[in-house]
Amino acid sequence: MKKAFILIIEIAILYLILRSAFVQYMLTDVHKTLSDWMTEISQVHHRQTLEQLRGNMSGFTQQFSEAQLDYFNKVTYSPDQVLRFHDLYCVKKDKNPFIYGDSLKHFCSQIEQLKSRL
Fold first, then answer.
1. Of 54, 66, 57, nearest in space to 106 by CA
2. What is the pLDDT of residue 118?
3. Which residues cross the membrane (predicted)?
4. Radius of gyration (C-alpha) of the chain in whole angstroms
5. Is 96 exposed, middle or buried (0-12, 13-18, 19+ CB in 10 A)?
6. How far apart, in whole angstroms, are the C-alpha atoms of residue 42 and residue 96?
7. Exposed/middle/buried for 16, CB within 10 Å: 0-12, 13-18, 19+?
8. Whole-number Å distance between alpha carbons of 2 and 60
9. pTM (2 decimals)?
10. Alpha carbon 8 to chain centroid distance?
11. From CA 17, how far away is CA 21, in angstroms rounded?
């Protein structure tokens, strides 16, 4: 009986400590940090794929003007942007004022190859 009473007291004390403002702040901070780490870890694969896509296009991007290069960097910033570009300009064949001709064909083929990893 004495052990059960002590256990109940310990649980009550632990509950009160964990409900304190300082501990809540600390737990929130730990949660945010862990959440940020998990987000970073999940995005590593996408960043590597985007870097590979940029590397595969390096022969064409050397010939780009500054405006074309800025546009290319915006498109390859996120997987969503790349997939949107692919849908609009590779699948639906919409006209793109920045990337066209052989550059567009090569870019579309590179996206198609890496599409499953985006």
1. 57
2. 80
3. 7-27
4. 26
5. middle
6. 31
7. exposed
8. 79
9. 0.69
10. 46
11. 9
pLDDT digit string, tens, across residues 79-118:
999 999 999 999 999 999 999 999 999 999 999 999 888 8
Q: What is the pLDDT of residue 1?
A: 84
The token pair at 104 is 């567009």
**Alpha carbon separation from 114 to 2, 7, 27, 84, 97 (Å, rounded):** 66, 57, 39, 14, 24
Structure tokens of 111? 């996206």
For the segment 4-38, what is each residue's pLDDT rounded down to a tens digit? 999 999 999 998 888 888 888 988 999 999 999 99
CA distance 2 to 20: 27
Residue 76 is given by DSSP the state: T
